[in-house]
Predict the structure.
Amino acid sequence: MIEIQFDPQDSIELRPARIREAITAVLTILKKPEFEITLGLIDDKEMQQLNKTFRGENKTTDVLSFNQDLQDPETGRFYLGDILISLPQAARQAAEHHHPLEDEVVFLAIHGTLHLLGYDHYTPEEKASMWPLQDQIFADLKSKWNEEEK
């Protein structure tokens, strides 16, 4: 199960089904479909505080992932963790890259999911593993959605 938490009035350009599909795609490709994730869209103030508390950086960022690795004793399913995306930061990045806000949020959801699964990008070797994978997943989803809209 993938839970998306946001205020629909703040996010009228977003379709939660697409965000959910992006996270599901990552989990499926990496053979982890039984994992559960919660994704929340938050503001810059909350993101700055979380970034300061957990990473020591007193500034906003686009996405943070918090791995939980908990197993539900009732269902046996694994709660992988939480992804938090700053909606204002995503909007700024979408404008900078000249694409819709939804594309940026979907991309950040993919990025955050990969972080939960142990991917990182602090070294050139990590970037070489993570970035092409996230780019390919995003491109495949965009192609699929473009075909569906024809």
Observations:
- The helical segments are 16-29, 44-55, 87-97, 101-116, 124-149.
- The two ends are 29 Å apart (CA to CA).
- The chain has one domain: 2-149.
